Amino acid sequence: MDDAPQAGTTDTQRSAVDRSPEDTLRALLDVLVPDDRALVIQDAAGNEYPVPRTLPMRRQIPALRAVERLLGDPAIARAVGAFAAARGDGDEVSVVSQVGRLADVLFDVVDTEAFATGLDQAFSAAYPDILAAARGKGDPAGRPTDLFPVEDLVGAMVPFSKRLVGTIVEVFTQVGATL
Q1: What is the pLDDT of residue 53?
Q2: N or C: which end of the chain has fewer CB within 10 A?
Q3: What does the alpha-carbon distance between residue 35 and residue 55 come to, in Å, rounded to a whole number?
Q4: Looking at the whole model, is its pTM more than 0.70?
């Protein structure tokens, strides 16, 4: 394989293409929730709520199961599959093209009732105290998706998942290196 950069390929494009899936996942999680700052989410009324970076297992597992069900929804699986298929096998796709495809997938996913329901279930399981506080300041019967913007709900799910996903990725990386 020729390691020379292809003409017209930027450093950013090369680094995105050359990354392993594990490194890409780590980088994504680091962008979503850097380790060096506290995570605070904001409800639609502007009230702020600090989000813990870890959860007890009895909250973590039901939240992760809700995320698992969410990702298993056929409409969401089709949208994610369409993004993966659009990339093709071995094709170098420009970063701009990848971002455009990712945006299309995100809008397709976020626009489903299954996504809203799954996110409500996951957030409610993970952060019942934050949900209760937000309900106390707004709609007392409101679901998380009625009270918070989508980016804050999704962002709140990352910190407690980040450690677990990081551990799992590290285990698979180590196992893969020994094979």
Answers
A1: 80
A2: N
A3: 16
A4: no
